[in-house]
Amino acid sequence: MSENNVNVDAIYAKLSELYPIENDLKFNELDVSEKVQLNTYKLMFFTEKYEKAESKLKYLMEDLDKTTGERYHIYKFQWNESLTKPEIEKYYLPKDENILEIKRKIRNQEAVVAYFKMCRDMFKSQTWNLKTFLDSMRAGF
Question: What is the mean pLDDT of residues 129-133?
Answer without folding.
Answer: 76
